[in-house]
Design goal:
Radius of gyration: 29 Å
Distance between the termini: 17 Å
Structural class: alpha/beta
Number of strands: 8
Largest sheet: 6 strands, mixed
Helix content: 40-55%
Shape: elongated
Strand content: 5-15%
């Protein structure tokens, strides 16, 4: 058993609190359980209000598995614990005193917890190793509870992503177009080249991108800054790019990054050459891209904005100097969906948050119109419960659930976990 289980029992009053008494057999009335302290130091609950016997007390509550943990943690020497009015424990094995030698009232929780709640908790956290703790009963969770929890998880995910966006905004002198350029470039690189593409974007002041209106110059800028022109290739277009990049580099006083994008184990349509050309075309067509995305409210509008292809050279090339069959290489719907999921929606949310006008329903409507992502995590959830992820909002929420709750054993902070604790099932 862990202390977080006792925190859960106390915080949500998941015990027979109406009949509770202290270990001294004094009646105990919970007027306010207090504010949960999620920091690392100090009592577990602040500003609680209790009535013990005929006396009303206001102060803090400390929770331990055993009463003796008070001394094991040296709380008797810490002034932060002088205002503890109740010691909540699973097992009372020793009397506890404050620094002034007054005894602290104790509540022994194990006397007041339903057997099925305890058994469900033990089944959840102490069973054989599983992919997620609740996988045996995951399919039994009520649809309404799961749907609402996934929506809350997705909003929590957006809040988390906003932290990086606001950091980038601060480093970009509050230029939302510059932040969009960095995040969009990163996601054009997908998992394989995302880090290198972000380094490339960060090496270019966005004011430079704004000033370049020629296709050759912008592609030269992107390829050059990505360190892809520092080789010898006998190809007319490549040589044009090299020459143009030297001019652009000198004009804007730029330095390319040291790493190079990878091609290995990438499908040809995801080659960095094509992605950088498509990115250049996007910015040639939309100089105020963030402003357009900000005002877009439907999925169809977003698809229209990202309806771009490569420059002519890349219609019959995947890499420099190697000619292939000529085809238009437009951004696919699936790729645009990834850009909307990972860049556009988080950025729109952060912007709306910055102006204190979050239109969450509009953002959720877009996400629920996009097909669920396909990855190992989402597939596993769909095996545990058929059609768990029916659209992109679900798949994003499930990724957040797995990494931020399941993998950290935070079942008692999860709506699914807490609902299973209270269900009368083994």
């Amino acid at each position: 058993m862990k202390e977080d289980f006792l925190h859960y029992l106390w915080k949500f009053k998941k015990f027979d609190f109406l009949t509770a008494k202290t270990t001294e057999a004094e009646t105990l009335q919970l007027l306010n359980v207090g504010q949960h302290n999620l920091q690392s130091s100090g009592p577990d609950f602040f500003n609680a209000k209790l009535k013990i016997a005929d006396q009303v007390w206001a102060g803090n509550v400390e929770i331990h598995l055993k009463s003796s943990d008070w001394y094991a943690h040296k709380h008797e020497q810490d002034a932060n614990y002088d205002n503890v009015i109740l010691h909540v424990v699973w097992e009372h094995n020793v009397e506890v005193f404050r620094k002034d030698e007054t005894k602290i009232p104790t509540l022994q929780l194990k006397n007041y917890v339903h057997e099925y709640t305890l058994q469900n908790y033990l089944n959840l956290v102490n069973g054989p190793e599983k992919w997620i703790n609740c996988e045996t009963n995951f399919a039994s969770v009520h649809d309404f509870l799961l749907k609402n929890w996934l929506e809350r998880l997705y909003v929590e995910r957006l809040q988390e992503k906003s932290k990086l966006i606001f950091q980038l905004l601060e480093n970009s002198e509050n230029d939302w177009e510059a932040v969009l350029f960095k995040l969009l470039t990163k996601n054009f690189g997908l998992n394989k080249n995302g880090t290198v593409f972000l380094q490339m974007a960060s090496s270019i002041p966005f004011s430079t991108v704004r000033k370049i209106n020629e296709e050759l110059s912008l592609e030269a800028l992107f390829f050059g800054q990505a360190n892809m022109l520092n080789v010898d290739i006998d190809d007319a277009y490549f040589l044009q790019l090299q020459k143009e990049y030297e001019y652009v580099k000198q004009k804007f006083k730029l330095n390319s990054i040291h790493e190079k994008p990878a091609f290995f184990r990438l499908r040809p349509h995801n080659f960095p050459t094509l992605r950088l050309s498509q990115l250049a075309q996007l910015y040639l067509q939309h100089k105020t891209l963030f402003s357009k995305l900000k005002s877009s409210t439907t999925l169809e509008e977003l698809y229209g904005i990202f309806d771009v292809t490569t420059s002519v050279y890349w219609e019959n090339h995947y890499s420099f100097g190697k000619e292939n069959k000529s085809t238009k290489k437009r951004l696919s719907k699936k790729f645009i969906d990834l850009l909307i999921i990972n860049t556009i929606i988080p950025l729109k949310f952060a912007y709306q948050k910055s102006v204190d006008k979050v239109e969450i329903e509009s953002l959720l409507d877009i996400l629920t119109s996009i097909t669920s992502e396909e990855n190992s995590t989402v597939k596993k959830f769909n095996i545990l419960r058929k059609n768990t992820a029916s659209h992109a909002l679900d798949s994003q929420a499930l990724l957040h659930l797995k990494s931020n709750y399941c993998d950290l054993n935070k079942c008692l902070h999860c709506e699914i976990g807490t609902s299973l604790l209270q269900s009368k099932m083994s």
